[in-house]
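User: Please predict the structure of the protein below. I'd like the answer in structure-token form so I can feed it into my own downstream comparison script.

Assistant: Understood. Taking the following sequence of 75 residues as input:
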Amino acid sequence: MKFERKHAWLLLVVALWNVLIWLTFAKNLSAAHSRGESHPTGYWVAHTILIVVDLVIAGVLGALAAKAFRATRSS
């Protein structure tokens, strides 16, 4: 696939959006835990795993965006 700058920008925006959303969710989840909200352990574990996995996905998308920017610069 030939990357264009529009692809790079899309990947970058989606990566940044994922980081913003999931870090906000992590902050809210932490605040809920600090307030002593009563949820089963599985709730906390599942949401923590979701946050970690989606932040990893954001990292992969960010790396692809950087690769796409480099590819369009050298073309």
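That's the full token string. Residues 58 and 67 are 14 Å apart (CA to CA).
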